[in-house]
Specification:
364 residues, mainly alpha, transmembrane, GDP-fucose transmembrane transporter activity, single chain, 77% helix, globular, Sugar_P_trans_dom, membrane, TPT_transporter
């Protein structure tokens, strides 16, 4: 069967809309029992929630704990990238030694591949750094609202890069998200807990998350379409690029005089953060595989709601009615946008199917 190559505009469109665009592998097999499928989906979704929420709370501890007192957010991010790169290499070696037991693509030092991935690595560094800096300066409860503009940037970049218009319903959903964001900022200010620096980092993180989706689609062909090879080269590049930043911002000196450098507990927490960073990519892929991109977005929105409630309870915070309203607006707007885009994609597929059938009948 001939396959029509994807144009760059189509690839960017898929990245911005969240569509996977990947064809199903092989013919559909026999349906598994409903209870088995439901149990597997529940397990994968639970795993995604546990790892994602745990990673946020752990990173908050590493970045802003009064008991730790480590003012080196770039070093924490660098170490997590280093752990991810080493894990990829270790799994690659293990797969080579035990091919029947472990499945992982071969990764090796490749200057050409690293250069091809470099544009993505620059965006990736911005994404993870701004994410951690946002988390350092704002509370976990406000973290989701502070980083809530990714969907808005997706729509904006779709128009600027692809001249792709967005439906009124989707734009209305984005308006609700923006309204929730500003109300959240206002309420944080009213409570005296607003950090303008942290909020700015959250906006920059949202922009980088959107750009990361675009560049991921663009550079995947350079690593034979392998997400794990991309992860390896991306994190290796990030480790190298972080070194001058650590020198420039004086974090190497900060770490050198840190009083817990000989603490096994500290390095255990740092390594655990790196393991969570590696695992979140895997469980995200699993959740999309066993559900759908649309369900993954809904699950992520629900997870953010649970994370906010847990943070308020854990840190014993008291929030106003309007503060909770801002969170509900962000979550509701995000859910509505996901629902609207899902309906639009389904409608487009239904309209395309008859035309494809007509072409097949005509022998085109």
């Amino acid at each position: 069967m001939n396959r029509t190559p994807l144009k760059r505009s189509r690839i960017l469109s898929m990245a911005l809309s969240g569509a996977s665009g990947a064809p199903a592998e092989g013919a559909p097999g026999p349906e598994k029992p409903f209870l088995l499928r439901a149990a597997r989906i529940a397990l994968v979704v639970t795993l995604y929630w546990v790892i994602s929420i745990s990673m946020v709370f752990l990173n908050k501890y590493l970045l802003d704990s009064p008991s730790l007192r480590l003012d080196a957010p770039l070093f924490v991010t660098f170490y997590q990238c280093l752990v991810t790169a080493l894990l990829c290499k270790a799994l690659s070696l293990l797969a080579a030694c035990r091919p029947g037991a472990v499945r992982f693509p071969a990764v090796r030092a490749d200057l050409k591949a690293s250069r091809s991935v470099l544009p993505l690595s620059l965006v990736f560094i911005g994404m993870i750094t701004f994410n951690n800096l946002c988390l350092k300066y704002v509370g976990v409860a406000f973290y989701h609202v502070g980083r809530s503009l990714t969907t808005v940037f997706n729509v904006l970049l779709s128009y600027l890069l692809l001249k792709q218009t967005t439906s009124f319903s989707a734009l209305l959903s984005c308006g609700v998200i923006i309204g929730g964001f500003w109300l959240g900022v206002d309420q944080e200010g009213e409570e005296g807990t607003l950090s303008w620096v942290g909020t700015l980092f959250g906006v920059l993180a949202s922009l980088c998350v959107s750009l990361n989706a675009i560049y991921t689609k663009k550079v995947l062909p350079a690593v034979d379409g392998s997400i794990w090879r991309l992860t390896f080269y991306n994190n290796v590049n990030a480790c190298i690029l972080f070194l001058p930043l650590l020198l420039l911002f004086g974090e190497l000196q900060t770490v050198a005089v840190f009083d817990k450098l000989d603490s096994a507990y500290f390095w255990g927490m740092m390594t655990l953060g790196g393991l969570f960073g590696f695992a979140i990519g895997y469980v995200t892929g699993l959740q999309i595989k066993f559900t759908s991109p649309l369900t993954h977005n809904v699950s992520g929105t629900a997870k953010a709601c649970a994370q906010t409630v847990l943070a308020v309870l854990y840190f014993e915070e008291t929030k106003s009615f309007l503060w909770w309203t801002s969170n509900l607006m962000v979550l509701g707007g995000s859910s509505a946008y996901t629902w609207v885009k899902g309906l639009e994609m389904k409608k487009a597929q239904e309209e395309l199917a008859p035309r494809e059938g007509e072409k097949g009948e005509m022998g085109v």
